[in-house]
């Protein structure tokens, strides 16, 4: 069945490219200009690799085209039209993943869709959230980062008065802006956590643990960044909270968050080794 499909696949790919070219172009532009979603450049090649990794299983799976795939494609095209008419980029990009999912189901069937479910779902991480949802997440993170930063400053003996996301120090006033809320590191760390868990451990519960752990890790490390910025500003003046030092602290915090994620996986592997990794090689006596 797969050997008879290349002409149809080429036609389908050409139609997909024509239909979603502008959608993909604006998506790549957002990755290039919005630091919150620069990890999008990583998502697509990883998803392609995940699909390629399943090529033998896909070739062996029975091809049973399902009509519901066509329904899913048509529904996604309706979503695409609504997004174009309403200038809502989120809907047009969601439709792109929907068409891919429907195409797999319509052309090959449920068995292939099950095998490709994870790569297709992973593609959703490349889509920037709509502004209304993004703000609903960013604002609580701003306040949480401010609270953690305030606690850190008090532990360090630095007098501070916090009003919402604004912290008043003796020599300056700091505002935990949206860019410092931690959502940028959270989204990128979540993506890396999913990839890291998938490749480093075969157990589903460990993969979920590593993915979910990115949330408290991102919140904690970003709160410590806010506290560190406040301490530096208190001792060395407002200049310590601006420019290169502020940018460098962001990279340092992200690297620290990655280190904590790696450390968590190491602890889990020591307490509960992955049976796939410790299984004896073929031909080796037990």
What's this, in brief?
By secondary structure, this protein is mainly α. It has 11 helices and 3 strands, in the order αααααααβββαααα.
Tell me about this structure.
With about 290 residues, the chain is mainly alpha-helical. The protein folds into two domains: about 1-130, no CATH class; about 130-275, no CATH class. It has helices at about 5-35, 40-55, 55-60, 70-85, 90-105, 110-120, 130-155, 185-200, 205-235, 245-270, 275-280, and strands at about 160-165, 165-170, 175. A three-stranded antiparallel β-sheet has the order 1-2-3, with helices on one face. A hairpin with a 2-residue loop joins strand 1 (about 160-165) and strand 2. Helix 2 runs antiparallel to helix 6 (about 110-120) and helix 7 crosses helix 9 (about 205-235). The longest helix has about 35 residues, at about 205-235. The chain is globular and about 70 Å long. The two termini are about 40 Å apart. About 30% of the residues are buried.
| Tally of alpha and pi helices | 11
* Number of structural domains: 2
Share of residues in strands: under 5%
Q: What is the rounded Rg?
A: 23 Å
Helical percentage? over 70%
Low-confidence stretches: 279-286
Identify the strand order in the major beta sheet.
1-2-3
Q: What spatial form do the alpha-carbon principal axes imply?
A: globular
Oligomer: single chain
Q: What is the ordering of alpha helices and beta strands? A: HHHHHHHEEEHHHH
Alpha-beta classification: mainly alpha
How confident overall, as mean pLDDT? 83
Q: Characterize the largest beta sheet: strand count, sense, and whether it forms a barrel.
A: 3 strands, antiparallel
Cα separation of the termini: 41 Å
């Amino acid at each position: 069945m797969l050997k008879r499909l290349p002409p149809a696949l080429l036609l389908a790919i050409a139609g997909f490219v024509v239909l979603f070219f502008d959608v993909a172009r604006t998506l790549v532009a957002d990755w290039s200009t919005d630091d919150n979603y620069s990890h999008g450049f990583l998502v697509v090649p990883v998803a392609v690799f995940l699909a390629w990794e399943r090529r033998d299983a896909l070739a062996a799976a029975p091809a049973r085209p399902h009509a519901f795939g066509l329904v899913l494609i048509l529904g996604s095209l309706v979503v695409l039209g609504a997004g174009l008419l309403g200038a809502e980029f989120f809907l047009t990009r969601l439709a792109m993943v929907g068409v891919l999912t429907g195409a797999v189901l319509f052309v090959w069937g449920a068995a292939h869709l099950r095998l490709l479910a994870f790569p297709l779902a992973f593609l959703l991480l490349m889509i920037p959230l709509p502004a209304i949802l993004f703000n609903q997440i960013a604002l609580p993170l701003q306040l949480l980062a401010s609270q953690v930063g305030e606690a850190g400053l008090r532990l360090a003996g630095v007098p501070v008065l916090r009003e919402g996301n604004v912290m008043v120090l003796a020599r300056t006033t700091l505002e935990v802006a949206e860019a410092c809320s931690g959502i940028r590191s959270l989204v990128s760390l979540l993506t890396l956590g999913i990839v890291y868990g998938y490749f480093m451990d075969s157990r589903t519960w460990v993969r979920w643990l590593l993915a979910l752990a990115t949330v408290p890790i991102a919140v904690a490390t970003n709160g410590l960044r806010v506290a560190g910025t406040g301490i530096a500003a208190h001792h060395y003046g407002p200049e310590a909270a601006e420019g290169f030092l502020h940018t460098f602290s962001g990279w340092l915090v992200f690297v620290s968050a990655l280190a904590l994620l790696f450390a968590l996986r190491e602890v889990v592997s020591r307490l509960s080794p992955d049976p796939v990794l410790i299984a004896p090689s073929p031909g080796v006596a037990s």
